[in-house]
Amino acid sequence: MDGAGSFGAGRTGSAFDLIAFIKQPQTVLRVLAWIFSMVVFASIINEGYVNMGSERLHCVFNKNADACNYGITIGIMAFLASIFFLALDIYFPQISSVKDRKRAVLLEMFFSGFWTFLWFVGFCFLASQWSHTSPQELPLEQASDAARAAIAFSFFSILTWAGLTVCAVQRFLLGTDLTLFTTEHMGEQPPKQPYPSNDVIGQTTIPVNAYQSPPLIETVETRPPGYKIAPAF
């Protein structure tokens, strides 16, 4: 029973319920994070670079290649991480060890929190570079939609990954409470006290020695020969 029902999952080895899994908030947020990250890096890769009449391509975000590289990098890594954690959510109920479940939840919690911060930095970075982009230097009509889409979905990614962080924290706190009732902790309970006596208030316990058999009564068969009973006066 180790790990049964801990950290927000069902009992170990229980049947997988696809409908219930899809309805979970963390599953919805995971799918949204996957879509948003794909929009960010796909927009920058496909239309985030403009040609200035030469073979060299310039990043649409104020000709700053670091801005485009940053958006592409965190977008691709968030895309892959969303797939990984989605698969982990499916496999999570099959993990029987409480310690392994705790490690998985901690990994998700710290990664989601860290990626929320990276998306916030990316949103500020892209928005700042876009605000300094001059239409005279770059033909923005070629990539303005892609730049705005990357900025907008970077902001949406902040919200989704922050929501995933909250879900992971809730699962961790729930698991911490439930592990108090696992078999590992049950063994740490103090030894049980002996059963109380059968005495009832107002009654006295009768000792065992009081139930002795009565003394033997002399009978005729047990009297020795020649034995006479003294007459009574």
From TrEMBL:
Organism this protein belongs to: Cyprinus carpio carpio
Family that this chain belongs to: Belongs to the synaptogyrin family.
Name this polypeptide is given: Synaptogyrin
UniProt key word Transmembrane: yes
Subcellular location: Membrane
Topology of the protein relative to the lipid bilayer: Multi-pass membrane protein
Signal peptide: none
MARVEL domain sequence ranges: 21-173
InterPro entries per UniProt: Marvel, Synaptogyrin
Keyword Transmembrane in record: yes
Transmembrane segments: 31-50, 70-92, 104-130, 150-169
Keywords linked to the UniProt accession: Membrane, Transmembrane, Transmembrane helix
One Pfam family hit: MARVEL
Main location: membrane
GO CC entries: neuromuscular junction; synaptic vesicle membrane
